[in-house]
Amino acid sequence: MAEEDSSQEKTEEPTERKIQKSKEDGQTARSKELNTTAILLFGALGLVAFGPYMSDKIYHIARFNLDVERAAFFDVSYMFSHMSASMWEAITALVPWFILVLIAAFLSPLGVGGWLFSTKALAPKMSRISPLAGIKRMFSANSLVELFKAWGKVLVVGTCAYFVIAFYFQDAMDLQNAAVRPAIKRSTEIVLWAAVILCASTLIIAMIDVPWQIYSHTKKLRMSLQEIKDEFKDTEGKPEVKGRIRQMQREAAQRRMMGAVPDADVVITNPTHYAVALKYSGGAGAPIVVAKGIEETALKIREIAKEHNVPQMEAPPLARAIYTHTRIDDEIPEGLFVAVAQVLAYIYQVDQYAKGQGVKPDRRPTMPIPKDLRVDPKAK
């Protein structure tokens, strides 16, 4: 029972298939704090970068709307053209800043989880509207973490605001004695840089939230040993089915191999343990191994060769060397060219003699085997 229970505990890291399936379902690690921080920080830096440009635009809009000739008040269409011009000027003032914030909104998801498009995430689920599920989420560990994050943001941003105010306090007090234009410029700088510092302080929360979200998502995807076994069976197939498929493949390959034996030029045997069927098409190519086997397979090759009058020749060292160093449809190794050529020449002379067109070979070929291709006779 203990072993069975341990197999159901989700202690194993998720497999690649489980992670991919969760992405297809629209589930991946996400950090809202990172996205919020990126948008706030880029927005504040955008105000610093485009602040002078935007202030000039606002200044021109103010002058354009306040500096109106008396005769324009009597023109009914003037108000609409005036308003259109002002709106266009305001849009051009805000477009660079909006583009920067939009880029931040699109790039921030790349930090954790990446871009993800899934229609399954939009599908309605009863668990989302179930009161019991909602109550369970309210008192879950994730809700407790969100509560601590909220208090953490208040603490971090509040502390940072205190130090910012303390740092700029004297500068703010000195503004009352400054001229209007320098005071406006300096106060704008103070406000903008204070905003940048306060937005940057949320990085602390994001740095804590990102590892937590990755850990939480990975923990949610963890699998039990049984789930991994079931997934392996679904992906790779059951072992008995795979074994049966491999057996059928071997049988099909053996049938194809045996079908090539009748077309062979010679079968070289051990004579009992090995059998290798060779076919030579002539030309510049070397003889090709069309069939080979040991024990029962070798016996079957010899039987088929005998049935179709394919010449057989006993040459144990050569049979072992060809069997060991080649695969089906391979050419024989270069080191065995001389030995195989002697065998083919000998078989040709015997065939010609049997037809009454030549002399009987006086001796068997020597069939030299290089040392690096020799095989121990005890090996099967």
TrEMBL record:
Protein name (Swiss-Prot/TrEMBL): Flagellar biosynthetic protein FlhB
**Region feature Disordered, mapped onto this chain:** 1-30, 357-380
Lineage of the organism: Bacteria, Pseudomonadati, Pseudomonadota, Gammaproteobacteria, Oceanospirillales
Q: Which biological process annotations from GO are given for this protein? A: bacterial-type flagellum assembly; protein secretion
Membrane topology category: Multi-pass membrane protein
Q: Which family does it belong to?
A: Belongs to the type III secretion exporter family.
Q: Describe its function.
A: Required for formation of the rod structure in the basal body of the flagellar apparatus. Together with FliI and FliH, may constitute the export apparatus of flagellin.
UniProt keyword Cell division present: no
Q: Which UniProt keywords apply?
A: Bacterial flagellum biogenesis, Bacterial flagellum protein export, Cell membrane, Cell projection, Cilium, Flagellum, Membrane, Protein transport, Transmembrane, Transmembrane helix, Transport
Q: Which GO terms describe its cellular component?
A: plasma membrane
The record's NCBIfam families line, in alphabetical order, gives: flhB (TIGR00328)
Chief location bin: membrane
Q: Which gene encodes it?
A: flhB
Source organism per entry reads Oleispira antarctica RB-8
Q: Where in the cell is it found?
A: Cell membrane
InterPro entries, A to Z: FlhB, T3SS_substrate_exporter, T3SS_substrate_exporter_C
Transmembrane stretches, by residue range? 34-51, 97-118, 150-170, 190-212
Q: Which domain of life is it from?
A: Bacteria
Q: Where is the composition biased (Basic and acidic residues)?
A: 7-30, 360-380
